[in-house]
Amino acid sequence: xxxxxxxxxxxLWVIGVLVFLFAxxxxxxxxxxxxxxxxxxxxxxxxxxxxxxxxxxxxxxxAFVLSLKAAVAATILATILGSMAAFGVHKARFFGRDSxxxxxxxxxALPGIITGVALNxxxxxxxxxxxxxxxxxxxxxxCIVVIYNNVIARLRRTSNTLLEASxxxxxxxxxxxxxxxxxxxATALVSGxxxxxxxxxxxxxxxxxxAGAQNTxxxxxxxxxxxxxxxxxxxVVVTLVVILMFIPILIAARLTGSDxxxxxxxxxxxxx
Amino acid sequence: xxxxxxxxxRRGPHVxxxxxxxxxxxxxxxxxLLWFLVIYFSSLGLMxxxxxxxxxxxxxxxxxxxxxxxxHQIATGAYPAIIGRTVLLAALVTITDVVxxxxxxxxxxxxxxxxxxxxxxxxxxxxxxASYLAKVFxxxxxLINGGALNWTFNLIGLPSPNxxxxxxxxxxxxxxxxxxxxxxxxxxxxERIPSSLLDASxxxxxxxxxxxRRVMLPLVLPGLVxxxxxxxxxxxxxxxxPLLIGGANSTLVGNAIYENLLTGGNLPLAAALATVPIAVMxxxxxxxxxxxxxxxx
Lengths: 272, 297
Fold this sequence. Notes:
The complex is a heterodimer. Chain A is mainly α.
C-alpha cells in the first residue's frame, strides 16, 4: 500500500515536471497567434497576421541570413577541427591525452561571458574590427567539442578488426579511410554537425561581445525584448527558431541515439 | 640467418609505423590545438592582463600600466553585494534543480518501462534545445501581471503572486532553463547502478532511507556534481535573464561585466570582473574533487 502511494507520488512529480518543462514553450507558441499588441492571458482574439509581419520584416530577414551564415561557417570549421582532434586522440598514447577533452569543453563549461570578454579584449588589442568573421571565430571555439564528443564516442565503439581486415585485403590508408572509417562515423559526424549548428544558431551571450554593428537573429530578439518593441513579432520569430532548432535535434537523435546529444553533460562524462 | 632477417624485417616496419603514428597524431592534433592556443587561451591570458590595466579618465583610452585598482574597486563599493547575490542565486538554483530533478530522473531510470524511458528522455532534451531566448521570453509573458501565472492563481482563489521583474522570477527562470542539464547526468548515474546492489542492501535489512543515503547517493554523486557544474557555472555568468526578467535589485556579475564593457567603455574593469566567475568555478571544482565527486565519473 505504501509502495503504491510512493509510486503514485513519483509519477505525479514526473507529470508536474513535464508540465513545468513544456508550459512556457506552449505559451510562447500560442502568443504568436494573439491579435493584441499587449500580452495578457488568456488570449482573446486570434490572428495569423504576425507571421506575415515577421516574414516581411527586412531586419528579421537580414538577421536570419547573418545567423545562417555564421552557423554554417562555424559548423564547417568545427566539424573539421573537432573530427581532427577526435582522430588524433583516438588510439594515440601521449602525455596529457586525457586533458584534451577537458580543454575542449572549457568554452562550454565556463560561463559564456568569459569567452565573450576574452575574445573581445583580444580582438580590440589586435585591432580587429568586429564582423561576421569574429562571430564565426567565437562560435567555432565552443562548437568544436560537440563534434569531438560525437566522433570520439563512435570511434571508441568501432572495433579495430574492420580496419585490420581492410589493411589485410591490401587497401591503402586512404582507401580504408574512405570506404571503412568514413561510413562508420558518418552518422556521428552529421549528428554532431547538426547539434553544432543548433548551438551556434541560438547563441546570444558570446555573440554580443563578438558581433559588430550587425544583428544575428538572437541579438535582434534580445534587443527587441529589451526595448519592449515589436513583441508580437518576437513571439512569432522565437516560435520559428524553436521549430527550426527541433528539426536538426530530432534528426541528430535518430542518427546517434539520444544520449549523445547533450553537449555539456556528455563531455564531462568523457573528460574523465 | 633467416631469423635475423626476420627480426630485422619485423623491427624495421614497427619502428617506422610508430614514427608514422606520431606524425599522424601531430598532424591531426595541431590544427585544433593551435586554434585553442592561439584563439582561446591567448585571449583568456590577454583578458587576465587587461584586468590589470586601467582607463584614463580624461582621454577614455586604455592605459597599459599595470595596476591593481580594478580589483580594489571590485572589493569595495557595490560589487561585493553583486557578487554575493550572484553566488547565492547560483547555489539556490543548483539546490532547487537537484531537488526537482532527482525524483524525475529516478522515475525515468528505475521505474519507467523502456518505451516511457525513451519518451521521457526526448521530453527533457527538447526543452533543453528550445531556443534560450524563447524560453526566457516565454517566462516573461507568464510571470508579468497580466500573465498566465496570476490568472491561474486567481482561478483557484489565491491572490496574485506578481512575480514579474523580481529576484524570485530570476530564480524560477534559471531553475527552468538549467533543469535538463541536471536531469540528464543524474539519470545517467542512476541508470548505471546495478539493481543487485540495491537489492542486497534491502536483503541485509537496511531501511529504504539507509539504502538511499549509503548506497544510492554515493553512486549518484558524480552525476549530480557534473550537473551542478553547469547549473552553477551558467548562472554565474548570465546577464540576459536578469536584464529581461529581473528587477531593480537583480544585477548579477554578468550584468556588471556587460555594462562596464558595452555601455561604460571600461574593458579593464569588465575583464577584472570576469575573473570572479573563473575564481568561483575553480574553488567549486576543487571542493567537488575533495568530495570525491570525480572519482567515479
